[in-house]
Design a protein that fits this description.
InterPro entries: Cas_Cas6_C, CRISPR-assoc_prot_Cas6, CRISPR-assoc_prot_Cas6_N_sf. With about 290 residues, the protein is an alpha+beta fold. Helices cover about 25% and strands about 25% of the residues. Helix 1 (about 20-35) crosses helix 2.
């Protein structure tokens, strides 16, 4: 399931670093530990977007100017989502970098019907390689139109699916068809405009800082529907539980596919209708940036 967590922004104009997934990852990890349920301390089958809202770019980072900002959370485990949301709503004032935000309400996205081929866009950077300590290999650039690009995504996806224990051996053996085909027209257009689709990002694992290369580009994935569903809910590539590799369907109107979400905490309803508030939250694909 995928839910949108909408916050009110208390200090318009405040900023986050352009690459802020590690800040969100540390915040969510703190909430997971704070709740005290040890079965979730090392749970990795979830994914989240960057913080979305109306922004402007400066040398400091992304300055947020909208009244509401949105974080998209995704996991096949509804109990985990509810647990995490409960911790969020027990924290009325949240500081992320220079931003001060407060949780307002949640929405659930309707689950799309995924086919054997789907065109996706990356709403958080896609990481191919997991580096080791004192190793620069995670920053290596891999051309998106090479077999290596698709093969690395295939290997990481099938490894995670097997470790989950959700699929039989017969199912795993049937998932051999897998190919990620980037939209090279988009990539070449960015290159002509001297814009980047691949950047270096910081990620922290066991208190160790790593630098990895992340890719943000549209691509078509050819794979079994079960594989499509897994990457849509759990992310694609490496460090998905740290906010990398979140996908959304291309050409899919985000404002028309949500409903109120009331998670299963007795007597607690973290939802206010948009009509009641008179505001529309930014979706995962609705982020305005001046510059690149």
């Amino acid at each position: 399931m995928r839910v949108r967590l909408i916050f009110s922004l208390k200090n318009k104009g405040a900023y986050l670093p352009f690459h802020h997934q590690y800040i969100l990852a540390q915040f969510l990890k703190g909430l997971i530990v704070k709740g005290g349920r040890e079965e979730f301390f090392n749970y990795n089958y979830f994914n989240f977007s960057g913080l979305k809202g109306q922004t402007k770019v400066s040398r400091s980072g992304l300055h947020y100017y909208s009244s509401l900002v949105t974080l998209v959370l995704s996991s096949p485990n509804e109990e985990f989502i509810d647990y995490l949301l409960e911790q969020v709503f027990e924290t009325p004032k949240i500081e992320l970098g220079n931003l001060i935000i407060s949780p307002e309400y949640t929405e659930q996205e309707f689950e799309p019907t995924l086919e054997a081929s789907n065109k996706f866009v990356c709403i958080s950077p896609l990481v191919l390689l997991t580096p080791s300590f004192n190793d620069e290999s995670g920053k290596r650039f891999i051309n998106p139109d090479t077999d290596e690009f698709s093969d690395l995504l295939y290997e990481s996806t099938l490894t995670r699916m097997e470790r989950s224990g959700w699929y039989s051996q017969e199912q795993m053996e049937s998932f051999y068809k897998f190919q990620a085909v980037p939209d090279m027209n988009y990539v070449n257009k960015l290159r002509e405009q001297q814009k980047k689709f691949a950047r270096i990002y910081s990620v922290y694992d066991m208190d160790v800082k790593y630098e990895v290369r992340g890719y943000t580009l549209p691509f078509t994935l050819y794979a079994a529907p079960e594989v499509q569903d897994f990457v849509f809910k759990c992310g694609l590539g490496a460090f998905t539980h740290k906010g990398f590799g979140m996908l959304d369907l291309a050409n899919h109107a985000p404002s028309q596919r949500t409903e109120p979400y009331k998670f299963k905490r007795e007597g607690f309803i973290p939802y206010k209708s948009q009509q009641d508030r008179g505001k529309t939250p930014p979706s995962e694909t609705e982020e305005n940036q001046d510059g690149n």
